[in-house]
Amino acid sequence: MMRVPAHPIRARAYNNHRTRTDPIGDPRILSDPATPPTMTDASDIAPAPHSAPPTTPVGMRPFGWAGWLIHLPLTYRPLKFDGAAARGSAALGDDRASRFYVVWGTVRKRKFDPAALALKRFAKAVGRTRAPNIQANLELIDHPNFQYFGRVVDRVVQCDRYFAYCANTRRVFDMVYHHDNTDADRTFNQSAMRSLLSQPADAPHYWSFFTNSFATPPGYAYAKSVINIGDMAVTTHLPRRFRRRREITVRQIYPARLALARQPIEDWIKSITVHKKLIHKPRHQRWFKRGGLRMDPVQTPVGAGFVIDTRVPWQLQMWRGRKFRRTRTWFVHDELQDRLAVVSISAANAELPDLIDTIWANWQWAADSAPNAD
Lower CB count within 10 Å: N or C terminus of the chain? Predict the structure, then answer.
């Protein structure tokens, strides 16, 4: 279905550790203590430039989470995903089966040989009997976003196994694609895998899952999330040693017409902030004073809404650690996308305009490729 752009503004702008899951059944995912002498030196890697929102090919939809992104067929949807930028796992598939599994992690060693680890991972995946034939069956792919990208076709299990390494982000991907029909397999290998992107930390991170898509400013990393049908929120933070911790929470409630039929947006604001009332207070309200929230009208590129400033009383600041006392929250009704946008930012006042501009400029950047239902 053709869509009108949501708004006129668009952005221009693994140390060996283990993970809980592995797509090929091994709890270990990343590097081995013994690495060959021919390595990649991290000091020779230049940071990647900032980029605009990636273009979605026709008939594809993006999935982006915690710093990586891929474009998949429209019939695919997330089945399970967990983890942060440093490591995590995801499973995606269509209505018939789980098709694509990925485990990612970050290389902590200064020097690292992705080819040696790839051979080890492929050999362990196929088993001892077929391991000696891995070198002969390994196909090296020239990928635009990865310095190493290897593929092995497993005809016994009927799947393709991939191992990729991005030198800019020092991130590795261990992936398995289970075969479908011939046309679907060709599309996945030629389009989906070519679109795989590891997003650098010094550039905005583009998120896309289910029907939600947004971008977070450079440097902000995944902290936590709450994913429910019709109500999804992701919190990112900017961890800096000996400095107060910045946080951004992006929450989307949809469909808005159903939510607003239950209660007006002013009541939604009160219900969302009520759980904070024992800790947070309206910025213009004294500690012992009782009263209503001060909601200032605001017009954003996404739509009209309200903005609220809250703060933590100094008596309770010790429980907050190095977090900012003040939080500014935008409650906006996005009529075009039929959702309520709730964006909370804890940062210095001087940083707020640039941060919120990044959010609004990339709001629902993948809306044109998202179908009506998941």
Answer: N
SS3 content of the chain, % helix, strand, coil (to 5): 20, 35, 45
The reply to whether 40-198 and 207-369 are identical in fold is yes
How do the domains of the chain map onto residue ranges?
A: 40-198, 207-369
Residue 249 has pLDDT above 50, yes or no: yes
Closest alpha carbon to 365 in 161, 186, 216, 249: 216
Cα angle for residues 365, 339, 274 (degrees, 5° grid): 120
CB 365 within 8 Å of CB 213: yes
In whole angstroms, what is the distance from residue 267 CA to residue 264 CA? 5
Assigned CATH topology for domain 40-198: Protein Transport Mog1p; Chain A (3.40.1000)
The amino acid present at 184, given as its one-letter code, is A
Q: What CA–CA distance (Å, rounded) separates 185 from 178? A: 9
- The pLDDT of residue 32 is 37
As given in the structure block, the two tokens for residue 231 are 């109500």
Q: Which residues contact 294 (CB under 8 A, 6 or more apart)?
A: 282, 283, 284, 285, 308, 309
Q: What's the start-to-end Cα distance of the chain, in Å?
A: 14
C-alpha span between 54 and 147 (Å, rounded): 20
- The proportion of the chain whose per-residue pLDDT surpasses 90, expressed as a percent, equals 52
Task: For residue 292, give the DSSP letter.
Answer: -
Query: How many C-beta neighbours within 10 Å does residue 186 have?
Result: 10
Q: What is the pLDDT of residue 50?
A: 41
Predicted model pTM? 0.78
CATH of 207-369, one of 3.40.1000, 3.30.160, 3.40.190, 3.40.30: 3.40.1000
